[in-house]
């Protein structure tokens, strides 16, 4: 990472910095809205459900338990906008698929001249997550590591390197986030033609480029989660809404009560620590003598 890059400007490190993927998507969102307005395109039938006085609609995704399928769709859409609206084609040899192919089959040069479609990126990531049984939280951390790599190493994600960058980010995120991490050799069972040595070398380079900074603060994780929801909303990628049932309302109330009790316990502990200095016994105070 360049020395003049302040921590506050890096979204993968600082919670107040705007995520790169959301910024890159706004150009397309504005153009789409402008085109619809000029062509008098109707938004069509409303598919999103809204709460009323009698019915409350909630989706099944929360910041602590995101929906896996929808999260992967949002993360791959973020990667798609990264590739589509990249600044240049800066890359490194370790991530170049032409130098380090993921398959033994000959890939035509024409393949690397076109940006991949969102559905193709989604299929690649979904296959890895399904085979390795990774979680939705791991997908969010993958995006954090991806943007941190692009910022620290000053490279772009493009048709020649996107698969290996995404693979490296998933590999690292699964080891840091999931309790039962997937070994490098396991990924070689999923991607049949890649070697363990290649995986190890890519992981080592990835860590070095991140300057071994694999920490993801809770505030940064939450920011990426909610920005992914904004991205989904901007691109009509709706979450699955369902009416709030009595059983689910009781579960939410129980979780809320549990979190409230934990918060009160933490506050009491903090109060005890702050008052501890006033509880010393036998401390003699003498008047100051000014001469």
Task: Summarize the model shown.
The chain has helices at residues 20-38, 68-84, 118-132, 136-153, 162-177, 184-190, 196-209, 218-234, 246-275, and strands at 57-59, 241-243. It has 291 residues and is mostly helical.
Describe this structure in words.
The chain has 291 residues and is mainly alpha-helical. It has 2 domains: 56-235, Orthogonal Bundle (Cyclin A, domain 1); 246-270. Helices cover 53% and strands 2% of the residues. It has 9 helices and 2 strands; from the N terminus they run H-E-H-H-H-H-H-H-H-E-H. The protein has a two-stranded antiparallel ribbon. Helix 2 (68-84) crosses helix 8, helix 4 (136-153) packs across helix 5 and helix 4 (136-153) crosses helix 8. The longest helix has 30 residues, at 246-275. The radius of gyration is 24 Å and the shape is globular. The chain starts with 19 loop residues before the first helix and ends in a 16-residue tail after the last helix. This is Cyclin-like domain-containing protein. InterPro entries: Cyclin-like_dom (IPR013763), Cyclin-like_sf (IPR036915), Cyclin_N (IPR006671), Cyclin_Y (IPR012399). It holds the Pfam family Cyclin_N.
Rg (C-alpha, Å): 24 Å
In terms of structural class, how would the helical and strand content be classed?
mainly alpha
Strand order of the largest sheet: 1-2
> If you average the pLDDT, what whole number results?
82
CATH homolog superfamily of the largest domain: Cyclin-like
What is the strand tally? 2
CATH topology of the largest domain: Cyclin A, domain 1
Helix content: 40-55%
Write down the CATH class of the largest domain.
Mainly Alpha
Sheet of most strands: 2 strands, antiparallel
Write the CATH architecture name of the largest domain.
Orthogonal Bundle
- Tell me the span between the first and last alpha carbons: 56 Å
The global form is globular
Low-confidence stretches: 1-5
């Amino acid at each position: 990472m360049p020395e003049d890059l302040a921590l506050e400007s890096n979204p993968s490190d600082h919670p107040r910095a705007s995520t790169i993927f959301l910024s890159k998507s706004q150009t397309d969102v504005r153009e789409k809205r402008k085109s619809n307005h000029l062509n008098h395109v109707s938004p069509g039938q409303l598919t999103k459900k809204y709460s009323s006085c009698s019915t409350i609609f909630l989706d099944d995704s929360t910041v602590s338990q995101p929906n896996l399928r929808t999260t992967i769709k949002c993360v791959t859409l973020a990667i798609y906008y990264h590739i589509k609206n990249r600044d240049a084609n800066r890359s490194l040899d370790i991530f170049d698929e032409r130098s380090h192919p993921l398959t033994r089959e000959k890939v035509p040069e024409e393949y690397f001249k076109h940006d991949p479609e969102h559905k193709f990126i989604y299929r690649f990531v979904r296959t890895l997550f399904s085979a390795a049984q990774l979680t939705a939280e791991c997908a969010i951390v993958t995006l954090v590591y991806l943007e941190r790599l692009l910022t620290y190493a000053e490279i772009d994600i493009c048709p020649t390197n996107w698969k290996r960058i995404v693979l490296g980010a998933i590999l690292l995120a699964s080891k840091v986030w999931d309790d039962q991490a997937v070994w490098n050799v396991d990924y070689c069972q999923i991607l049949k033609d890649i070697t363990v040595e290649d995986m190890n070398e890519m992981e080592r380079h990835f860590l070095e480029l991140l300057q071994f900074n694999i920490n993801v603060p809770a505030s940064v994780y939450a920011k990426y989660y909610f920005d992914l929801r904004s991205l989904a909303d901007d691109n009509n990628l709706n979450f699955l809404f369902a009416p709030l049932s009595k059983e689910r309302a009781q579960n939410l109330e129980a979780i809320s009560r549990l979190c409230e009790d934990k918060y009160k316990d933490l506050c009491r502990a903090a109060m005890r620590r702050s008052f501890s200095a006033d509880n010393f016994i036998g401390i003699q105070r003498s008047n100051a003598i000014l001469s």
